[in-house]
């Protein structure tokens, strides 16, 4: 065997195996089946969702991935290769991928680093290279890789080993696939994930409430504000090609359009992956307007790739800022409370992002303020900016010189 190569599962794997670069330079955007449909999925749903992504304007707004989550699995064949469920996906994954690709979109799939998935389906442990090869043959573009059934305590699988093994398997299969590390933040993947995956979950699962914790025995699901709070201190680890992932969005599943708008805005401020988790086949107009707001999406997809942060916090509201390319900034007034809040930014002090050293010198330059939800200019930094923000809502502006 040539020096520098190793043989695994009938594949020649370069000793310098790595993740694929250049395929997630901005946070991935798309749709995932789990939050709304859980295991109730089939190929008709995926086709209809791909159609809706095009027809609704989501594709034009930047959404690319149609991601199938848990429960698509059938059994492994006699050679150990995973097959789709024969009744739910009778046409096969290759045909479904071809359908999605013909729409100008990309397709994602789900597996798990354990023996079984969270839904009890066949996991990839011990079959990583076979599964990666199968995904490549099917034409898969995105892999969400979960952490169920990986053992507990001293018997738990090492997460760096587990995710590196699948990374190397994907690389060996030869098809560029976005690799989503879904390890729930238990082992601080932000400290080791950048060389392995393109994004990593920072928390446990999100749930469709504004501010709550729902216990499930030895783990919890978290509301939108709870997930937001758990991002503190993590922004230093994110950037082009390696993103903090505060989980798929519950936009469309929350109680009000205001909560949907606020959720979407804060994920944009976090430079988070924008993965929609609702039924988009017949969206209300307000939801479609939220999900396709290109000015807000531009903040998330900004080329600088810097995660925003809380400039000011009170018990009821927060002011967030995010440096953008070309010396611009985004600013969000977030009202977390159950009553309207009047929030003011007077621009009396310059802003300096300690992480990047980007500075807004209000004493030397005047910035135009553009409201990204009203799509209109609303003044300049020469005067204080004051807004009355409804409960569970936001005001978001972009500052341009």
Q: How do the strands and helices of this protein lay out in sequence?
A:
Elements: E1 5-8, E2 11-14, E3 29-32, H1 34-37, H2 43-55, H3 58-61, E4 65-67, E5 73-76, E6 82-84, H4 93-102, E7 106-112, H5 128-138, E8 142-146, H6 159-173, E9 178-181, E10 199-201, E11 213-215, E12 220-222, H7 224-229, E13 243-245, H8 257-269, E14 274-276, H9 285-291, H10 294-300, E15 309-313, E16 317-323, E17 329-335, E18 341-345, E19 351-352, E20 359-360, E21 368-371, E22 376-380, E23 385-389, E24 393-400
Helix pairs in contact: 5-6, 8-9, 8-10
How many strands, what sense, and barrel or not for the largest sheet? 8 strands, parallel
Distance between the termini: 60 Å
Helix content: 10-25%
CATH class of the largest domain: Alpha Beta
Shape: globular
- Unreliable stretches (pLDDT < 50, length at least 5) are 1-10
Instruction: Look at the helices and sheets and give the structural class.
Output: alpha/beta
* Amount of beta strand: 25-35%
Radius of gyration: 22 Å
Count of domain modules: 2
CATH topology of the largest domain: TIM Barrel
């Amino acid at each position: 065997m040539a020096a520098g190569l190793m043989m695994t599962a009938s594949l020649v794997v370069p000793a310098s195996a790595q993740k694929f670069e250049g395929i997630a330079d901005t946070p991935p955007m798309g749709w995932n089946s789990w939050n709304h449909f859980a295991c109730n999925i089939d190929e008709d749903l995926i086709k209809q969702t791909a159609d809706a992504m095009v027809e609704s304007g989501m594709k034009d707004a930047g959404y690319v991935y149609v991601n199938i989550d848990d429960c698509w699995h059938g059994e492994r064949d006699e050679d150990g290769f995973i097959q789709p469920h024969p009744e739910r996906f009778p046409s096969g994954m290759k045909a479904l991928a071809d359908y999605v690709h013909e729409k100008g979109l990309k397709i994602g799939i789900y597996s798990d680093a354990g023996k079984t998935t969270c839904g009890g389906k066949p996991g990839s442990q011990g079959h990583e290279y076979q599964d990666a090869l199968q995904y490549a043959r099917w034409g898969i573009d995105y892999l969400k890789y979960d952490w169920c059934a990986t053992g507990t305590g001293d018997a738990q699988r090492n997460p760096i080993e587990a995710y590196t093994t699948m990374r190397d398997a994907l690389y060996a299969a030869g098809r560029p696939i976005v690799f989503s590390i879904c390890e729930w933040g238990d082992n601080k993947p932000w400290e080791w994930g950048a060389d392995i995956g393109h994004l990593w979950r920072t928390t446990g699962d999100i749930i469709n409430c504004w501010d709550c914790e729902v216990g499930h025995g030895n783990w919890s699901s978290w509301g939108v504000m709870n997930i937001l709070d758990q991002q503190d201190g993590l922004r230093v680890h994110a950037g082009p090609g390696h993103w903090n992932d505060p989980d798929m969005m519950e936009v469309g599943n929350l109680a009000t359009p205001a909560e949907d708008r606020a959720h979407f805005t804060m994920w944009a401020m976090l430079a988070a992956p924008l993965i929609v988790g609702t039924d988009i086949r017949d969206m209300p107009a307000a939801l479609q307007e939220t999900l396709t707001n290109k000015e807000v999406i531009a903040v998330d997809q900004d080329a600088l790739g810097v995660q925003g942060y809380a400039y000011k916090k009170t018990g009821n509201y927060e002011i967030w800022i995010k440096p953008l390319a070309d010396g611009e900034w985004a600013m969000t007034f977030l009202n977390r409370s159950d009553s309207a809040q009047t929030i003011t930014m007077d621009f009396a002090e310059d802003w300096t992002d300690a992480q990047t050293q980007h500075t807004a010198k209000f004493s030397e330059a005047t910035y135009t303020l553009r409201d990204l939800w009203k799509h209109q200019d609303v003044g300049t930094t020469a005067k204080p900016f004051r807004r009355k923000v409804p409960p569970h809502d936001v005001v978001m502006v972009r500052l341009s010189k």
